[in-house]
Amino acid sequence: MFQRLQAFIPRVAVSASALLVTMALAQLPGYAQAPTLQEQLAAQYKTTKMGTDTSGASVVDAGTLMAIQKGGILGVPWTDHSTLTTKYESGNVHSPSGLMVAGKKSILGHFGTTQNEGQTTKFFAKGDKVYATKIDVKLEKDIVSLQIVECDTCNKTDPPTYNKANVEFVFPKGSLAKASAGDVEDTIGQLLAISDDSDQGDQQQQGDQQQQQGQQQGQQQGGQQGGQQGGQQGGQDQGGGEPQNIQMGMTTDQVQGALGQPTKTVNLGPKQIWVYKDLKVTFFNGKVVDVQ
Fold first, then answer.
1. Is the pTM of this model over 0.85?
2. Within a domain: residue 206?
3. In a 3-state reduction of DSSP, which class is residue 201?
4. Residues 137 and 281 reside in one and the same domain
5. By Cβ atoms counted within 10 A, which residue in 84, 130, 266, 274 is the most buried?
6. How would you write the pLDDT of the chain (292 residues) with one tens digit per residue?
7. Are residues 78 and 195 located together in one domain of the fold?
8. DSSP string, 15-58
9. Any domain includes 150
């Protein structure tokens, strides 16, 4: 008994020491844990906030706009209390089962094929624009779930219904915990591809675009005075300067110092994407996490 106790005490001491080291590292100013898959997806797909006004449901804060790439997603109006789930697995769309739809029908009482018939469900068509209202990563089940809502102004839906649906992306067993955010985003993009900002139809987003265009024009006008000098410097860098190396963990200031101002920037909250002529740099919380 005493010998077993002697063998057990060192193991406890080692575990306690490892815990103390981890806790001490977490307190260091430069120490930061890698972002989780949930955090990275939340940065890539900004969720939309819904609210109500005098006309009913409305978009309060528009998020990332996506275009549906395949048919089969079954939605219901935003005002419905329940939501139907469509699964996407191995490149195939699995619409809600007959039993699920039958249960929904018994609650709602009627399923129409057109809005004039009192439609309460709708199959989203390829090309329809939608927003994500919630993102949920379930590592233990190898599922990434996106709740989506229709962009009625983009799809010219009249009267507006803001149809919603739940889409579950099912990954092979045990693979999601090892998958990178890029791999997961590629899978999501097979069914829900991020749409270009110029296609967004909400008035709020149109206003944002106009504001951005005004800012860009102001920057261009303000930069004309120093254009020749910048061009000379750029020519020197391209002609005889040493190639600049962009490394993981570099800050935005360091990248700007090495490459200069990007030609385009995409701001997704904690995630930012800087686009150069031959390079795309992705930041998370102000530090480089990907270079393409």
1. no
2. no
3. coil
4. no
5. 130
6. 555 555 545 554 444 454 454 555 455 555 567 899 999 999 999 999 999 877 788 898 999 999 999 999 999 999 888 899 999 999 999 999 765 555 555 444 444 433 433 457 889 999 999 999 999 999 999 999 999 999 998 998 888 889 999 999 999 999 999 999 999 999 999 999 998 754 444 444 444 444 455 555 555 555 554 444 444 444 444 444 455 788 888 898 888 888 888 998 888 778 888 898 888 898 888 888 888 8
7. yes
8. HHHHHHHHHHHHTSTT--PPPPHHHHHHHHSPPPEEEEETTEEE
9. yes
88 contacts 168 by C-beta, under 8 angstroms: yes
Task: For residues 201 and 205, give the distance between their C-alpha atoms in angstroms, rounded to a whole number.
Answer: 7
129 and 270 in a single domain? The answer is no
Angle between helices 181-191 and 37-44 (to 10 degrees): 50
Q: Which two tokens stand for residue 275?
A: 């686009």
Cβ contact 292:276 at 8 Å: no
- Tell me which residue range forms the domain holding 251: 245-292
Q: Which residue, 140, 175, 199, sits at the end of a domain?
A: 199
What are the DSSP calls for 57-111, one per residue?
EEEEE---EEEE-SS--EEB-TT-S---EEEEETTEEEPPPHHHHHHHHHHH---
Residue 63 to residues 60, 68, 78, 204, Cα–Cα distance (Å): 10, 16, 17, 11
